[in-house]
Amino acid sequence: MQKKIELAKRLHLVGVSKDGVIELLWKFPLEQIEAQLEYLPYRKAKRPEAMIIESIRKNYSPPKEFYYARSKSELTEAFESLDEGSEPPAGQAPANSQGHRAESAPDLDPSDMRLAAGRQSNTADLPDFDPTIR
Q: Model confidence over 79-101: pLDDT tens digits?
């Protein structure tokens, strides 16, 4: 009974009339009403009171924005719960000992140094060719 009262209040706050609230609570499962109330903020409703009535009557599927918001919040919670100071699992070496983030840079070819220095060369190293061949 307490759940019906809570849903009736929520429906009334959205703008559903007293008769509309009674009809919805009488004809439809409480879980369906509760789900549609949860989806309502993610629907682009110009008239939320009409949208909630239609969505309950026709049992609309959740809007895609609902899933995006939910998955984004789950990912945020997962990243926040990571412990930055945690040790790698047993038998797994740290990333830097596997060659990642090497301490010294590899030896560079001197001919490539002009690119590394940010200078452009206007001369192209093209192979010799026979101008009579076309």
A: 676 655 556 566 666 555 555 55
Q: Give the up-direction half-sphere exposure of residue 26: CA atoms within 13 A in the CB hemisphere.
A: 6
Query: Domain extents for the chain?
Result: 2-65
Alpha-carbon distance of 81 to 84, in angstroms, equals 9
Ranges of residues in the chain whose predicted pLDDT is under 70: 70, 74-75, 77-79, 81-127, 129-130, 134
Contact 43, 63 (CB under 8 A): yes
In sign, the C-alpha dihedral spanning 18, 24, 27, 28 is: negative
- Alpha-helical segments (H) within 28-81: 30-39, 48-57, 64-81
CB 36 within 8 A of CB 55: yes
Kindly report the backbone phi and psi dihedral angles of residue 118, in degrees, each rounded to the nearest multiple of 5, phi listed first.
85, 5
- How far is C-alpha 132 from the chain's CA centre? 61
